[in-house]
Design a protein that fits this description.
Elements (H helix, E strand, L loop, with lengths): L19 H19 L8 H31 L4 H21 L20 H46 L3 H28 L3 H30 L4 H26 L14 H14 L9 H14 L1 H4 L6 H30 L7 H35 L4 H11 L3 H28 L3 H30 L4 H32 L16 H4 L12 H26 L7 H20 L8 H26 L4 H26 L5 H43 L32 H4 L10
């Protein structure tokens, strides 16, 4: 970072600072040392000034002492770093002591001229000590960072070993045992890599890490269902193909994470993004405008060559079967206009050189402006085409008709229909893959380019996996596991479409200048009544210390949502109002848990408060359903349900009032976050108690009804409250679409029965 405070003092540590945590640790130290070094060396200083400088020097020395103590403890625990860490700590302590001595008024050197004491008689010694201190402290931090990298590598190695074991299992019992271990390892790996992703300074690496972690998250659930399907139907070729593809993709994603963490590429390769039209135009425009500063820095053919490279890439648009004739003609005309303006610029440029001009002539200045304008018009047209096509595709496929048709025809065992709808999905996949490629050309930033490439790869891979899963279901239409497997892959596809919609908004923001990097867009239900009381609240992100404080609360919330999902899945009637509202509450609570980890779609405190308010309203809807449910019960049962319902209602109202109360200041905002999560945890706890109670009552009534031969169903006796099937309040509210690995862990014991 050119503007980083760490660059204000010149020192050569020979080490590159790659993480924010290391940089942020150095900033206060750099600031204090800079104060000492840059202090004006006046002939005479007051006693107050001398004491102030002495305090700074002592503070540096004390801080270094504490810092070194931690470094030495790390060295003891990590034998392979003991020697390097010990030397760096020794140098840091020595430099800290030197600074304390040089700023000590009592030992200051007295100049022989007039006997007046100056604090910095030995300025050269101070600069030398400062450089040694910064260099050694940086080395300690970077060595400590190696420990973090080592933890990630160790975690990855554990995952790989267990992955190999999972691939070779032949019985359900063995699979359940190993997958339980694998699940815990993946949770640990997710935490470590998530922390690393947030700590990286390089935005491109952060985007690549986010893409790889997204693959691992989705593939973990795919691996679970694909492996179960393969075990249940060992002779099914399509099930084997489905499973092998998941294992291959998981290994590839694990290697991607390692490349980012260790900065290593196989065979010394360098990760280079495919050159986009946006990047080509940016470089071309930079060279054109650079002619104002130097007429003789570039050969003439360099500009025309750059433009032709950009024009060649526009063929991705003009050669596409999905580009309209009108758009194709518009792009070709703008390319021709850019060529003409560039040719005129080169002519004026050569004329200026022939006159030995030292700066751009008026004619040349006009040509520079026209050329820049023409390439901007070309970029704007390409942006309009790419974004327009993406928006149209998202609208067209919002109903997920091919997925529904594949599920239905697979469940009916109709292989011919599966083949027909597979072709339809294949066409949709090709359209989406091509559209992602076009979006990459106009994305506007490299992190967004990386996200576009990830989206393209995801559609390209998941499409065939859905088809193989549908073929398996068609061959075994009565298989619950095969159906579950197809559902998981379809959910991953739907989730990627949602991610694409978010990506589209981010690209638009960059183009329109609202934001220069990826913004924390959150797709949450935000009708007027939800935001009315939050308009004046400033959205903030929690810092590392606050994030750490709420992490424990979040973990408890995650465990509760896992318990809640387990209780929900025990219900036979999954369409029961109580079940659906319970699932919605669990999903929203899980989104709030992801917030405590700095992950998911809730990025700011305002996002969290919006989600909490929606959760409280869903809880009140559940209270309404429970009240209706209680009218069918006997006195004793009714008392229990109504008692818990009143408790739930009070908690929901308390949460609602809390999130609607505006607060000012960082401390008050953090307290509001803490209170919101505490109240949510209390709500989920009550619902977890109610679910098995209500389920037991429903089962009992169903049993009694069966013995009496009554044709009336229990659900028909209820006056159900109408609830809209809003996807934002369903299992997709956490932005992933597929149940998390942690939520599935509790269900492994039921594999055999399925």
């Amino acid at each position: 970072m050119a503007s980083s405070p760490c660059s204000s003092v010149n020192f050569d540590s020979g080490l590159e600072i790659k993480t924010r945590s290391v940089e942020q640790t150095l900033i206060p130290l750099v600031s204090q040392i800079t104060t000492l070094i840059n202090h004006k060396d006046k002939p005479k200083k007051s006693e107050r000034t001398q004491q102030a400088i002495q305090r700074v020097g002592q503070a540096v020395s004390v801080a270094v002492g504490r810092f070194v103590a931690v470094g030495e403890a790390i060295a003891v625990e990590n034998e392979e770093l003991k020697e390097e860490m010990g030397m760096a700590c020794f140098e840091a302590r020595r430099a800290g002591d030197a600074i304390a001595q040089l700023t000590d008024v009592g030992t200051a050197v007295t100049p022989p001229v007039d006997g007046r004491t100056t604090v910095f008689s030995d300025r050269t010694g101070m600069v030398k000590a400062a450089r040694m201190l910064l260099s050694s402290v940086t080395k300690v931090l970077v060595l400590a960072d190696r420990i973090v990298i080592k933890q990630i590598i160790t975690s990855r190695n554990k995952v790989l070993v267990t992955l190999e074991q999972l691939e070779r299992v032949s019985t359900f019992q063995e699979f359940v045992q190993i997958f339980s271990q694998f699940g815990n390892q993946m949770v640990e790996f997710a935490h470590l890599t998530g922390d690393r992703q947030n700590d990286l300074k390089d935005e491109n690496k952060k985007a690549r890490m986010a893409a790889a972690r997204a693959v691992l998250e989705k593939c973990t659930m795919m691996l679970l269902t694909a492996s179960k399907t393969c075990l249940r139907h060992p002779d099914c070729e399509s099930a084997r193909i489905n499973k092998d593809a998941v294992f291959h993709r998981m290994r590839f994603a694990l290697e991607q994470v390692m490349e980012i963490v260790t900065d290593a590429r196989p065979c010394g390769e360098t990760k280079v993004l495919p050159l986009s039209i946006y990047t080509g135009i940016k470089d071309f425009k930079s060279n054109v405008e650079g002619l104002r500063e130097g007429l003789y820095l570039l050969p003439h053919q360099a500009l025309s060559g750059q433009l032709e490279a950009v024009v060649e890439r526009t063929e991705d648009f003009t050669d596409s079967a999905y580009t309209s004739h009108e758009h194709r003609e518009g792009i070709l005309q703008l390319c021709q206009l850019a060529r003409q303006d560039t040719d005129q610029l080169i002519t004026d440029w050569m004329e200026a050189q022939s006159l030995n001009a030292k700066e751009a002539t008026e004619e040349m200045e006009l040509s520079i402006l026209k050329t820049c304008q023409s390439v901007y018009e070309l970029r704007r047209e390409l942006h309009k085409v790419a974004v327009g096509r993406a928006a149209d595709l998202l609208k067209l496929h919002a109903e997920h008709l091919p997925l529904r048709a594949l599920k239905a025809s697979g469940g009916e065992g109709n292989l011919e229909a599966v083949a027909e709808y597979a072709r339809t999905l294949g066409e949709q996949k090709e359209q989406l893959v091509e559209t992602c490629r076009l979006l990459c050309h106009v994305s506007g930033t490299e992190p967004l380019e990386i996200t576009c490439i990830h989206a393209e790869e995801t559609f390209h891979v998941i499409g065939p996996q859905i088809i193989s899963a549908a073929q398996t279901l068609a061959l075994h239409p009565s298989s619950k596991i095969a159906k579950e497997n197809l559902d998981v892959f379809c959910e991953a596809w739907e989730s990627q479409l949602c991610d694409m919609a978010v990506l589209l908004r981010e690209i638009n923001d960059v183009f329109e200048g609202r934001r220069g990097d990826k913004r924390a867009y959150v797709s949450l239900p935000r009708p007027g009544k939800h935001s009315a009381n939050l308009k004046t609240v400033k959205a903030v992100k929690l810092d590392a210390e606050e994030q750490s404080t709420i992490a424990k609360l979040g973990l408890e919330l995650r465990l509760l949502t896992s318990d809640m999902d387990t209780e929900v899945e025990k219900w036979e009637d999954q369409e029961h109002d109580i079940v659906r509202q319970g699932q919605s509450l669990s999903s929203m609570a899980y989104s709030m848990y992801l917030f405590t980890r700095g992950e998911g779609l809730l990025k700011t405190t305002t996002d969290l408060f919006h989600q909490a308010e929606v959760l409280s309203e869903e809880g009140l809807q559940l209270c309404s359903s429970l009240h209706t449910f209680s009218t069918q019960l006997m006195d004793e049962q009714k008392v229990v349900v109504l008692s818990e319902m009143e408790k739930l209602m009070g908690l929901c109202q308390q949460l609602q009032m809390g999130v609607r109360t505006p607060v000012q200041g960082k401390t008050a905002t953090f307290q509001k976050v803490d209170s919101s999560i505490q109240n949510t945890r209390a709500i989920i706890t009550v619902v977890i108690y109610l679910l098995p109670v209500c389920n037991k009552i429903v089962r009992k009534h169903k049993s009694e009804r069966s013995s009496l031969g009554s044709p009336q169903s229990w659900r028909d006796r209820q006056s159900s409250t109408a609830v809209k099937d809003d996807v934002l309040n369903g299992k997709n509210s956490n932005g992933f679409g597929v149940k998390s690995l942690e939520q599935h862990m509790a269900n492994l014991t039921f594999l055999e029965s399925k």
